[in-house]
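Supplementary Methods, section 5.1.

A reviewer requested that the exact input to the structure prediction be made available. We therefore reproduce it here, unchanged from the version used in the analyses.
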Amino acid sequence: MAHARAMDPLESHMAAASIDGMRTTPTREAILNLLSLSPMTDEELCQAYRNMAYIGGAPHSSDQNIRTTRCNLHRDGLVQVVGVTKSASGRQTRIWRTA
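The structure derived from this sequence is encoded token-by-token as follows.
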């Protein structure tokens, strides 16, 4: 669900309340489709999404938007952590898949 900041005007709170948090967008659908095919890290998900967008299977999106959308899908219970691995930079990263 969308949220307005405490200091935002009334109109912002009304707009946030009117947004359906479980709405389906092409980006959400593409991420769910990718994670249903194979569990992957955010790094792998971003690369797979860019490949999908390149061939016209998804709208173009920034890596940050892809990670934010994946985070929202996790919050909504649609994706889950299935493990941990090391990223290309050597840092620990989570492995995601559809719930």
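Residues 22 and 59 are 19 Å apart (CA to CA). These observations are discussed further in the main text.
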